[in-house]
Amino acid sequence: MYATLIDSIREIVSHRELVYQLMMRDVRIRYKQALFGFLWAVFLPVVVIGAGMVVRFAAAQVAGTTLNEVEIAGMAVKAVGWTFFTGALGTAVIALLANQNLITKIAFPREVLPMAAVLASVLDAAVGATAVALLVIILGIPLNIQIAWAILLSAHLLMFTLGFSAILAAGNLFFRDVKYIVQVALTFGVFFTPVIYEPVMLGPLGARLVMLN
């Protein structure tokens, strides 16, 4: 099994130019006739942040507290990761079916198709992350060494998304309702993921349960 995994990685590396071309194709298709272009990469995290602010403001009013800049920045950082995950998974799960003609005509590792879809979403995430960094600077929030965790966690999120998208894309070949299950899960998943709220808000037991996600 280990040898098979190594061989698969080597095959993908040997087709890295194909991965790049497919990724750029996905990016061009996505923004070809989009009025706002790359602003959509900022708009989606903003929507998540806006929804989170409404929820957090309502909770603060009930608790008699206030919503501060650090909490807003925290939601913004997590919103970038969440929108990357949902966008990448939503496009990657249908990548194999959407490229049936290419699969039947050319011999290449099929894993590159969902991989290219995920990597195309990395570009969106980079634009969103830049906007969030500017927001943090505008809010005047001081940075510390803990920001280095963002690099490690981003790499972990990327690897997890790549692996998960490959599994779901393969599953969607045999069970066509997989893409619908994924859509429903991603739509409501934000409420079961500590993006717009902090785990401690759910109490000790609730925090432990939600952090399993």
Provide key terms for this protein.
single chain, 213 residues, mainly alpha, 10 helices
Structure description:
The protein is mainly α and 213 residues long. Helix 2 crosses helix 7 (112-139). It is elongated. The longest helix is centred in the middle third of the chain and has 28 residues, at 112-139. The mean pLDDT is 79. It has helices at 2-14, 16-31, 40-63, 69-92, 95-98, 100-105, 112-139, 149-174, 178-189, 203-210. The protein is built from 10 helices and no strands.
**Oligomerization state of this entry?**
single chain
Number of contiguous helices: 10
Run of helices and strands: HHHHHHHHHH
Structural class: mainly alpha
Termini, distance in Å?
28 Å
Approximately how much beta-strand content do the residues carry? under 5%
Question: Mean pLDDT, as a whole number?
Answer: 79
Outline type: elongated
Report the major sheet.
none
Low-confidence stretches: none
State the total count of DSSP E strands.
Answer: 0
Helix content: over 70%
Radius of gyration: 19 Å
